[in-house]
Design brief:
Layout (H helix, E strand, L loop, with lengths): L1 H22 L5 H9 L4 H17 L1 H15 L10 H13 L5 H21 L2 H11 L5 H17 L1 H13 L1 E4 L3 E5 L4 E6 L4 E9 L3 E6 L2 E10 L3 E6 L2 E7 L4
Antiparallel strand pairs: 1-2, 1-8, 2-3, 3-4, 4-5, 5-6, 6-7, 7-8
Helix pairs in contact: 2-3, 5-6, 7-8
C-alpha cells in the first residue's frame, strides 16, 4: 500500500514538473524537449531543470531578445493601405452602376466621402499647420488644440476663402520648372527646390489668402506672391524679383 502511494506521488510530481517545464517561459523549446526526455529518470530532470533555470535567469535579457527576434521574423508584416477619397468615390460609383447600391445608399456613402474630403483639406490648410506648430511648441494644451481645430472646421464651413485657397492649392500641386531649377509642391505639404547646380532644399508649404505661397525651411519663412496661376503657368514675386515657371507633365 505504501509503495503504491509512493509511486503515485512520484508520478504526480514528475507529471506536474513536466507540465510546468513545457508551459514555462523560463526555458527555450530545445531545453524543454531535453528535460521531457529526462522524465524516465526524474532526479536528472529536476537537477537539470534547476541548473537551466538559473542559467537562463542570468542571460534572460539576451534570451528574450532572441526569442522576440525569431518571433518577429516568422510573422509576416502586413501593411494597411486605405483607398484615397478619389478612389473611394470611384468605387462607390462602380458599385452603384452595377446595381449593388441603391440611390439612398449611394448618396449616403458620397456624403461621408465628401465630409472626409473637407476634413482632409482643413488638415492641409495654413491655419491648421499654424495651430499644430503652436501645439507642438507647447503653447497650446491638447484640449486647447483640439478645441481650436473644431473651431477651424466650423469657420471653414462658413468661409468661402477656404474654398478659394483649396482651389489655388490644387492647381499648385506638381512640379514647376524655369531656367533656375524646379520647384515641387506636393499634396502632403512638402516642398522641394532643385536648382540647376543640383542643390536641394526641402521644406513645407501652404497657401495664405489665396495669393501667397508660404514656404518654410531651415526655420525660415519665405513668401511667394502669386501674380498669375493657370494650369500650366505660375508667376510670382519674391524679394522684388519676378519668376515665371511652367508646369511639368507627370507621367
Amino acid at each position: 500500500m505504501n509503495t503504491q502511494i509512493g509511486v503515485g506521488l512520484l508520478v504526480g510530481a514528475v507529471t506536474g514538473t513536466s507540465i510546468y517545464i513545457w508551459n514555462s517561459d523560463n526555458f527555450t523549446k530545445p531545453q524543454k524537449i531535453i528535460l521531457l526526455f529526462c522524465i524516465v529518470f526524474p532526479p536528472a530532470q529536476w537537477i537539470l531543470a534547476i541548473i537551466l533555470f538559473f542559467y537562463n535567469s542570468s542571460v534572460k535579457p539576451s534570451l528574450n531578445v532572441n526569442l522576440n527576434s525569431s518571433s518577429k521574423e516568422s510573422t509576416p508584416k502586413t501593411k494597411k493601405q486605405g483607398l484615397s477619397t478619389t478612389e473611394q468615390k470611384q468605387s462607390v460609383e462602380i458599385l452603384k452602376e452595377k446595381g449593388l447600391l441603391n440611390e439612398s445608399e449611394y448618396q449616403e456613402k458620397i456624403d461621408i466621402i465628401e465630409k472626409q474630403i473637407k476634413i482632409d483639406k482643413i488638415y492641409k490648410s495654413k491655419e491648421y499647420l499654424n495651430l499644430k506648430s503652436l501645439f507642438e511648441s507647447g503653447l497650446f494644451t491638447k484640449d486647447e488644440f483640439e478645441n481650436k481645430v473644431e473651431l477651424l472646421k466650423t469657420k471653414a464651413s462658413e468661409n468661402n476663402s477656404f474654398i478659394q485657397s483649396d482651389f489655388v492649392r490644387e492647381k499648385l500641386i506638381g512640379i514647376w520648372k524655369d531656367n533656375v531649377g524646379t520647384i515641387e509642391f506636393w499634396d502632403d505639404n512638402t516642398f522641394v527646390f532643385n536648382d540647376k547646380n543640383k542643390d536641394i532644399t526641402n521644406g513645407s508649404w501652404s497657401v495664405d489668402n489665396s495669393d501667397i505661397i508660404e514656404i518654410r525651411f531651415n526655420s525660415r519663412l519665405e513668401k511667394f506672391y502669386i501674380l498669375e496661376l493657370s494650369e500650366k503657368t505660375l508667376s510670382y514675386e519674391h524679394n522684388n524679383s519676378r519668376f515665371t515657371l511652367k508646369k511639368e507633365n507627370l507621367i
